Amino acid sequence: MTFSQLNISDDTVARLSEHEITEATAVQAQAIPVIEAGTSVVFQSETGTGKTLAYLLPLAKKIRETENPKKEVRLVVLAPTYELASQIKMQVPLFSDIKAALLIGGAPIKRQIELLKEKPEIVIGGPARLLELYHLKKLKLDGAQAIVLDEVDRLLSPELRDETCAMISLLKKECQLVACSATISQNTVKILSDAKKGEKIETLFLPPEDVLRKRITHMAIFAEQRDKIDTLRKLLTAEKPEKALIFTSRVDQVANITAKLTYHHFECAGLHAKADKQERKAAIDRFRSGKCPILVTSDLASRGLDIPNITYIIQMDFPSNEDFFIHRAGRTARAGKTGTNIVIGDAYEMKKYAALEKKLGFIVYPKVLYGGKLASPETEED
């Protein structure tokens, strides 16, 4: 379906086409009419299917079509990480000249107060910083028409739930609520309904495009814990990935892996929550531009991060639950492309990997590094 068929204006369609965005994805085709109608909705769609534009296009259209002489904030977008918030803001100029402000914790609040004086109609950021600006009377929300919760399951996790629900409570009752993620539970919907004081919220669960099974090749390489980084080094030497994202659950391991790869002359960068915003932005920018082909990260980057042409996901451990696995793997094979997901694990992790393989119905190919190449293990004949 084209964007014109979805009642998107000609000038917006033209600007999208300049970025080779010409046809709506399945989630965009289904979510845009619902959101444009003003309905509060929670929608679920797999990673890499275009959820950001699915809500930005209709909500930006509403901003343009509504008189706003005081230039009040019309749209509030909540995101759980700086990286995702920044990425959402980058989408706005693709199709619109609406002024948007990025308001995130860890960055100078004085600069953000100055940004608000420029009268943005869209504000994007973490719930804690937006609450802080509101209580300082620098962020006014009286004119907000809608609030979006991107990666809503993460925003409603125990550590972010109170701030997220507090943000919802600050808005007028008639303010439209839109929430999305690749993984949404019924409990998420209930929490949102309670936060909106029992208002009925429509749910939209897109049928799976089966990215995990159809577009991602899954592999497993056995390695004891002490041998994992050396195994990673050999894998990178063998495969020479164009763009590889390496995950570890342990924040302290990001710097360790990065240092050891750098010692062996791999161009790489590290990304984790304890790094400051400038370091995180620099790492993402280098990786996005292709100047740095390898990014080592904690699970900070598994949520919502959309970087084109990631060819390899390498997981240095098996994540604590299947949602993390899905979000990690979903950083590749985006926008119709294919990719490879490799888990380097010990015996315990391989057992968990096999159980998930069975549960989710994808095929894991065991591999070994032999003679400087990635190969299938030889099978012994009886």
Structure commentary:
The chain has about 375 residues and is an alpha/beta fold. It is about 40% helix and about 20% strand. It contains 15 helices and 15 strands. It has helices at about 10-20, 25-35, 50-65, 80-90, 110-115, 125-135, 150-155, 160-170, 185-195, 210-215, 230-240, 250-265, 275-290, 320-330, 345-360, and strands spanning about 40-45, 75-80, 100-105, 120-125, 145-150, 175-180, 200-205, 215-220, 245, 270, 295, 310-315, 340-345, 365-370, 375. Strands 10-11-9-12-13-8-14-15 form an 8-stranded mixed beta sheet, sandwiched between helices. The chain has a 7-stranded parallel beta sheet with strand order 3-4-2-5-6-1-7, sandwiched between helices. Strand 3, helix 5 (about 110-115) and strand 4 (about 120-125) form a beta-alpha-beta unit. Helix 2 packs parallel to helix 3 and helix 6 (about 125-135) crosses helix 8 (about 160-170). The longest helix is centred in the first third of the chain and has 15 residues, at about 50-65. It starts with 9 loop residues before the first helix and ends in a 7-residue tail after the last strand. The relative contact order is 0.12. The mean pLDDT is about 95.
User: Which percent bin holds the helix content?
Assistant: 25-40%
Calculate the terminal CA-CA distance, rounded to whole Å. 55 Å
Structural class: alpha/beta
**Which strand order does the major sheet show?**
10-11-9-12-13-8-14-15
Uncertain runs: none
- Rg, Cα atoms, Å: 22 Å
Determine the mean pLDDT. Answer: 93
Total number of strands: 15
Order of helices and strands: HHEHEHEHEHEHHEHEHEHEHEHEEHEHEE
